[in-house]
């Protein structure tokens, strides 16, 4: 499953003009982190989160306090193993990718790497 937030640049600029850049970004981050928590509560145990600010929001919403670094997906982007109150003590695998890291096939490689 892929969940993303995007719009054409004119629509983004219109929302940012109305709400302010920071508030518009925070709304998206809050929505995506809420979706991530809901997925984990329902049994999802592997998440790839793209975007630096969004990654921070998801980690915070999940209540992650530590990460164990796992296998590298691309330079600078590993899988991590974390614990979250949302997954009831089970291990959650999370890859956090900022916008300037990862190849064009990053998402495909991420899940293949975790399975190997």
Structure description:
The chain is globular. The mean pLDDT is 92. The protein has 116 residues and is α+β, with helices and mostly antiparallel strands. 46% of the residues lie in helices and 22% in strands. It has one domain (9-115): Four-carbon acid sugar kinase, nucleotide binding domain (Molybdenum Cofactor Biosythetic Enzyme, Chain A). The chain contains 4 helices and 4 strands. It has a 4-stranded mixed beta sheet.
Short description:
This protein has 116 residues and is α+β, with helices and mostly antiparallel strands. The protein is built from four helices and four strands. Helix 1 crosses helix 2 and helix 2 packs across helix 3.
Characteristics:
116 residues, alpha+beta, Molybdenum Cofactor Biosythetic Enzyme, Chain A, four-stranded mixed beta sheet, 4 helices
Into how many domains do the coordinates divide? Answer: 1
CATH topology call: Molybdenum Cofactor Biosythetic Enzyme, Chain A
- Number of helices, counting only DSSP H or I runs of 4 residues or more: 4
Spatial ordering of strands, largest sheet: 1-4-3-2
- Give the helix proportion (percent range): 40-55%
Rg from alpha-carbon coordinates:
15 Å
Taken from the alpha-carbon principal axes, the silhouette is globular
Top CATH class = Alpha Beta
Uncertain runs are: none
- Mean pLDDT, to the nearest integer, reads 92
Any guess at the CATH architecture? 3-Layer(aba) Sandwich
N- to C-terminal distance: 20 Å
Q: What is the topological layout?
A:
Blueprint: H1 9-19, H2 21-41, E1 46-50, H3 52-62, E2 67-74, E3 77-82, E4 92-97, H4 106-115
